[in-house]
Amino acid sequence: MHKTLCALSLLALAGLIALLPMALSDYYTGLTIKIMIYALFALSLQLLVGGAGLASLGHAAFFGIAAYFVALLAPQAGPGNMFWLLPGAMIAAMVYAGLTGALALRTRGIYFIMVTLAFAQMAYYVFHDTSVGGGTDGIYLYFRPELRVGELVLLNIDHPYGFYLFTLACLLLTWAFLAMLMRSRFGAALTGIRVNEQRMRAAGFSTYGYKLVAYIVAGGLAGVAGFLYAAKDGFVNPELLAWEQSGLVLLMVILGGTGRLWGAIVGALALTLLQEVFQSQALLGDFAKNWHLPFGLAIIGLVAILPHGLAGLPGLRCRPRGKAGTPKSSASAL
What we know:
Layout lengths: L1 H18 L6 H27 L7 H14 L8 H23 L4 H21 L9 E2 L5 E4 L2 E5 L3 H24 L1 H18 L4 H27 L1 E2 L6 H14 L4 H18 L2 H4 L7 H14 L29
Helix pairs in contact: 2-6, 2-8, 2-9, 2-10, 3-4, 3-5, 3-8, 4-8, 6-7, 6-8, 7-8, 9-10, 10-12
């Protein structure tokens, strides 16, 4: 009964979000799209952090590579075909994730974090210091891709509301995919690796293989977010691959709570809105020029007050109540 009510509540919330642009200005509609893209991006990292216990500081590489793939290969004379651009962006991100993950996952702890950061910076400097993708000036995407078969257009996202609904659909499908994945045997194995990897190896599990697959899948999902970002702004620059971008999405996951998939979405919402508030001259006047200081203090305060993240608040818990002391399974952490 509880699960049914939870599902109905989520469907009602999704329907409400789908209707938001009718009541919002163009600016706030664009802001909502940005939040959804970052929520999808954070969900992809949540698979590593909350699923397998892998804190990566190089996740922006997959985000940026996918965005550049779209901007570089989309035609300038008209809309590109989403039929191959979206899967291509995902595959490009997954290939880089496979190549770098095969090496990075041979390390642990702080060494893993530093290796992922190094690989991301390598990709950053390829686009920043060479003529690939316009160098520091970046590259423009003049037309949003459309889904078509031959001359038949099946989906056109050029209209703002159409792009809004498409972004929302991508976010919901990503969350549903990860929810099913974490309920599967694969998800249970990732949870076991996060809790005690040595015991999982002793039980006969190839933990390296499981982590590599999770790393590649997370890279592909980050590629979807990169595709949407490129289509939204029509502009891609090397800063999308910078370590600050990786740190930002990691903050979203930590702030939202690593124990639940919803945490990534809530964290993306909270962090983006905090940035908007502290950068607003209408609210803070000239002090908005120094917005990094109050923003950082707010993050520190929230993490200190809510050690389990925003998703740990009672109002956001969407799971059956268990007995005290009962360990939390991967399925109940969604």
